[in-house]
Write a structure and sequence with these properties.
2 copies of one chain form a homodimer. By secondary structure, chain A is mostly helical. The first copy, chain A, has 12 helices and no strands. The first copy, chain A, binds a DNA duplex (30 and 30 nucleotides) through α3. Chains A, B: Keywords: DNA-binding.
DNA sequence: TCACTTCATATAGCGTTGCTATAGGTGCTA
DNA sequence: TAGCACCTATAGCAACGCTATATGAAGTGA
């Protein structure tokens, strides 16, 4: 019943919590279950993690590293937008294979614990979108695009998790994914030879330049000059 | 301290629960708080609602009717896609003004309580998108479009709720909204005179016809004929 | 008018939850 | 050997959701 006695109690608590969290279909997991499975008593938990939430946070950071590893572990295809698609799919896959961990990570609403993880996930996406921006493939500043795409990605994943398994169609994901990417793409990135549809090319150019500058940490301008320059670019690329 | 004694205990319980739920910043609300504020004792709660969740469900249905009322209460503008935009904005507004109610309604993950509400919200959206489909303005079957848009809408709203109030920018919402609508729109609906970008016009026509048929309950075909006919149409309009 | 059923509320308490005040054991350094 | 962190256990508190049981009120038929 109990866990490997070789391991230190802290590790056993982490593993027990992760295991129970993974096998409890959404129902809450009690500290008593955890400590019993880990083979320790309550104060040990609170000594190491301070809190039930502290323990869960620790489990989550482990899970998050797994998530990040998944997001990073494919070689860039040279097609940034294609990589964004893969990040999206990977996000959904992570949510569906580890729904409970996902819910603790993204379904959690408390304005303290959530943002750090969301911000990290956003940063990953933004990094990739930055490459797309440099290539002149997107329509919107990378940060805004990342926030927007991530929001949709989380929404879709939550909806799929909440859906009974039998009629859980992955189409919802691919369609929403492509809609979001399509909407932030420039026409050239879409492969169509049609004219501009909305954004003028100067805006796209400003976005691309902005991204390129931030990526290369150019030394051609002083830092204060650069700051102002970037602000102007941002203003241009945010204008409708 | 207590509630209006004129009202029956059931109503007082509902109001007390709603009030506490609205003013508890995400922290859980106990049955004891509720019964104390309502001026009744525990068994009364369980007599009327069976369950804590039963009481919350009752509160939610009241809140949901408010939500639906908001979604219906503007006159159709004649521009279905514009109405979809308004439904989106109304959804976000509802979530931000009643975050706790919203979280119980849409942030809840249990695969039993959630779908009914989500399905209702989906139906509202689908109804509107059906009009757009009849007008040949959308690219995708209305049901799929509704699911997709709603998922993004929920994701954005949750993300805005989770965000600290000071840097809660509504841009995220409008941008994601327009991205989703843009992606499901046909070119004519976009106002651009460019050529087809992806979908062939026969697909759009099939989608429009399908929507029109389902809306009018045409009697020109027998029900079994109609069923098969609709299936073919669906197959056409789902083809990439 | 009186017994009888039905609905609604209260008293009191069960089992479980997250958490902790306190104390004891263990291994290290002096 | 003494002292000092560090870690763990015993025991128990307050709050939680919920319920077995009892009491009151209101309507119904004889």
């Amino acid at each position: 019943m109990s866990f490997d006695d070789q391991l230190p109690p802290k590790t056993r608590l982490l593993r027990a919590a992760a295991e129970l969290l993974a096998n409890s279909d959404g129902s809450p997991v009690s500290t008593r279950q955890i400590t019993k499975l880990a083979g320790v008593t309550a104060p040990t938990l609170y000594h190491h993690f301070g809190d039930k939430e502290g323990l869960f946070d620790a489990v989550v950071s482990a899970g998050f590293e797994e998530y990040v590893a998944g997001e990073r572990d494919f070689a860039p295809s040279g097609e940034p937008l294609e990589d964004v698609r893969r990040m999206w799919d990977n996000h959904v896959k992570f949510g569906l294979t580890q729904p409970h961990l996902y819910l603790v990570m993204f379904g959690n609403i408390r304005p303290e614990s959530r943002p750090s993880i969301v911000a990290d996930a956003e940063a990953l996406l933004e990094e990739m979108l930055n490459k797309a921006a440099i290539a002149g493939q997107i329509n919107v500043p990378p940060r805004e695009a990342a926030r927007s795409i991530l929001a949709a990605n989380v929404g879709v994943t939550l909806m799929l998790i909440a859906e009974p398994l039998e009629d859980r169609s992955i189409e919802l994901s691919t369609m929403t994914r492509d809609s979001m990417i399509f909407a932030v793409s420039t026409d050239t990135a879409r492969g169509a030879a049609t004219g501009d549809s909305g954004k003028s090319s100067v805006v796209v150019a400003a976005i691309a330049l902005n991204a390129a500058l931030q990526a290369s940490h150019s030394d051609q301008l002083s830092s204060s000059e650069l700051k102002l320059f970037l602000e102007w670019l941002h203003r241009i690329s945010s204008s409708s």
